Structure formats: structure tokens, C-alpha cells
Amino acid sequence: MDTFDYIIVGAGSAGCVLANRLTQDPDINVLLLEAGGKDDYHWIHIPVGYLYCIGNPRTDWLYRTEAEAGLNGRSLGYPRGRVLGGCSSINGMIYMRGQREDYDDWARLSGDDGWKWDNVLPLFKRCEDHHRGPSEFHGAHGEWRVEAQRLRWDILERFADAAEQAGIPRTEDFNQGDNFGVGYFEVNQRRGIRWNTAKAFLRRASERPNLTIVTGAQVSALTFDGRRCTGVKYIGGGQPHAAAARHEVILSAGAVNTPQLLELSGIGQPERLRGLGIDVRHALPGVGENLQDHLQLRTVVKVNGVRTLNTRASSLWGKLCIGVEYAFNQSGPMSMAPSQLGAFARSDPSQARPNVEYHVQPLSLDKFGDPLHAFNAFTASACNLRPTSRGSVHARSADFRDAPVIAPNYLSTDEDRRVAADSLRLTRRIVASPALAPYQPEEYLPGAAFQTDEELAEAAGSIGTTIFHPVGTCKMGRGDDGMAVVDNRLRVFGIEGLRVVDASVMPLITSGNTNSPTIMIAERASDMIREDRRRGAGAAGVMAPAPLAAAESA
């Protein structure tokens, strides 16, 4: 059995950052395990290639949700990256931090001011390589490249004008702590090519002799000596393997796979584990609970007298021109992030801060994976940034190869249904603004027939779909929070030598896209891990206080 100082499970957005930062110390020896393969698939790197990565077993776990009552009985595809770079290899590339209050809430809930906005901003800046250069809010010497998009569409310009007429001001920067406004998203690209965390953080780190990267390695269970996590078991090349950790095992498998692996290893709700035939090692009832996700409501609007991608890409000649433009300039539609224009607004005036995010696209289709419509149209998707609905992720069986049970529980609260109705009305107000009038906008989906609160909530259930931001399933919290899974240093309560570093630790979802906040979490975690090592806590293991409600153990 090979032995390492640290074992990182998952080479996604967090895992790549951790592997890079920890191995900058030549005395630290790290094993990084990734269930997927290398990021050498060409569609990963061409921005529009997300269309060929999502739903592709080469790059996606191919998960689905359970049938959702709030979505009128529908089940949704639930993409999760299964490749070096994880979700940063298949996501929408949008660089977004969220709002100042998100992090101040984390600090309050965890009892650690280190999570406040003013204290995490330097971490965002440390890893950032912003196209405008260094400033009060941005860094320019880090690994995580942030660029302006390399395209413009008339219909998006007019939507921005319409949003401004509806009371949403123009902004050039969504990432200063208050993202209220309308403007173009900045993206994680370098000269029109996707910039994933494997390129940003692993490329140079992989040359270090103290980093071992194993792809095609799916972890089946954690190993223990009493209450101390000592290593992992994994399958690679069809054969079982094991590795030991001198200091810590770090779970960075994401908000879906991390809670599943904890449960497979006997950490979770005792009754649930026993029902699956899994021996209970330690009771933590919060494992897999508190799932939060952003549900987007896709309003499709037909337009006349302005071109959209629907018709530009409808002919062989149009597609050829698009391909040539990207081949020579890395610009145009093939350089497009899935959404180009963004807006943050209040669904109603009573909201203290923006609670709705728009992703606006110069195209339309019935659902992801379907062909574009034959008519010109744009899509304005609105999502509730801070949903009150809570779902769960749990192991389906004791077999690690079985996909977990994913139940987001969308639109299950009166508040979320009200915000959904208000958001659809706000979209209609923007579309009815004078700036769009010359194009004779006509609502195609959900359709003008839906008017009352009840009708609009029903419509939301029919058109709503995930925007791929699951978080919270191993939430961070205080020792007296019976549903917290990790403490404010991301150590699993009641278990030594085990830490969680990924989006699952967010106690509340951020008010925006979640990839870059996950990278920031890994930046802070790398500092904590090295601090613990210097103090000797890493070698001895850290026993965090167990939550009062989770004291039961087998």
C-alpha cells in the first residue's frame, strides 16, 4: 500500500487547487484521485463544446434527479464533471463570486469571521488573473484566468437596454460584492478557449515529484483506525487498490459524490445506513441533507427584424462561417459561454438585495439537447438566487457503483413559488420595455395564458430546469448545529484526519454561479491545512467537537 501525506479524492474545481497549493511545499507528498479521465477531449476546450460534454459518459457522471413534485413530476438530467477539472471542464465558464452578504452569513453560521467577504476577497484575488489587471477587487498574477467575452449580439444589447428601462442599472463588473445590474458575464477563458482548473492549477503542479495523479480511479470507501480516517480504497483499471494517508484524506468529490462516499463509509444517518446494509461508524444526520440548487425558469421570446443564432446556424453555410471564425480568431458563436448577458435584480421591491439572476441567450430551444427553433428568438432564464427549498443526496445502495438518489425538492415552499411567479412577471416587464418594441416580442414559453400566481407557479414547474449549482450537502456549521457535517475549518465532526473541501460545505448557496466560490473555498482550505501541519495538528489528527444531535455512534 502506497502512503502519502494527503490524499485528495476528486480532481475537480477544488481538488486541482488543493493539489497545486499543497505540493508547492516540497516536503508535502500528495495523491490526487480522479474517477474520470484526462481532459484531452477536444470539446472540453472549445467553449461551445459543453453541448458535447454534458450527457457524454467520457466527461459526465450522467446523473438524474428523482421525479420532482415541484416540476410537475419531471426528472432532470444532473450533469457533474467526471474528468480532470471536474465541473470546470463542462460548465458555463461564468466567473461569479456572489454577494458580500453570502459570505457574511457563512461567517455567522460557522462562528468564523475568516469566511466574511472582506476576508475571502483576498483569496479570490490571489488566484485570479483578471484581464483588466490588478485593482481593489481583482488580482492579475494568479492562475484563474478571467476574460471578457469575444462576441456581441444586437438582441442582447437591446435586452440590456430594456432591463435598464425596467430599473436595472448597467454594470461592467458583477464581482465587487454587490452584483445588482445588467451586463455581459466575464468568463474563464484564455483567448476564446476554455480555461479549466486542470489547466490553471494542475498543469505545472503535475511536473512536481511530490504529486501523484491517478485518473480512472473511483474511490469505493474510506478506511479507518477507530475514529481516525487512514486512507481510501479505490478501483483503477478494474482492479482494487488502497492508499494510506499520514495526515489527512480530503474529500473534494462535489456536492453529490462526497455525501455518497461518506455514507458508503458508514458516516451519516444511522437508520438510513442500516437500511442499506452499511455498518454505522459515526452518526452525522446532516450528511446528504441541505441540498440547494438554482432552478432556472426559461422564458423564450420570439422576435422579428433581428437575427439570432437560431437562424444564423440554420444553414450549412452559416455553420461553416461560424467554424471558420472560430478557427482563425477563436471568436463568434463557438466561443460562446452557454449564457452571455447577465442581470441581477429584485423579484419584487420588498427584497433587501438582488434575489434573481438572469442568463440571457440569443437562441432558443425546447430543452437542452434539442435543436434550435426555426424562428428567431432569445431566451431569458431567471433563477431564484436564494431558494428556501431544501433537498437531499443519499447513497442508493451499499454499492459504490450505483448512482446516488438526488432529490432537489424544487419549488417545495410557498416562498419559492411566489418568487418564481414574480420572476416571470419581471421578465415580462423587461420584455415589454420600449427598447425591445421594434422587434415585436412575443412570449413563446411559458406563454401569455399564464397570469395568476398559481398559474405562473405551475408554469415554472413545467419550464424550470437546473442550472447545475448543487451545494450544501455536507454543510459547515458550529458544534451545536446538529445538522452540520464539518466545522469552520472544514473538518468532519467526530472523525480525525478527514476534511471536506468542495461546494458541499456551503451552508447557504451563493447569490450567483458557484464554481469560483468553490475555488475560493479550496484556497482557504489549503491555508488551513498547512497551518494545521505547521502546528502538528495534521500529523496527530484533529478531533472536532461532535454536534450534540449527532452524538450517537455505532
TrEMBL record:
Note the InterPro entries from the entry.
FAD/NAD-bd_sf, GMC_OxRdtase, GMC_OxRdtase_N, GMC_OxRtase_C
Give its E.C. classification number: 1.1.99.1, 1.2.1.8
Q: Which GO molecular-function terms appear in the entry? A: betaine-aldehyde dehydrogenase (NAD+) activity; choline dehydrogenase activity; flavin adenine dinucleotide binding
Could you list the residue ranges that cross the membrane?
none
Keyword terms of this UniProt record: FAD, Flavoprotein, Oxidoreductase
Domain Glucose-methanol-choline oxidoreductase N-terminal stretches: 254-268
Q: Which cofactor does it need?
A: FAD
For whether the record's keyword set contains Oxidoreductase, the answer is yes
Q: Where does FAD bind?
A: V83, V219
Family, per entry? Belongs to the GMC oxidoreductase family.
Q: What is this protein called?
A: GMC family oxidoreductase N-terminal domain-containing protein
Native source organism of the sequence: Cupriavidus oxalaticus
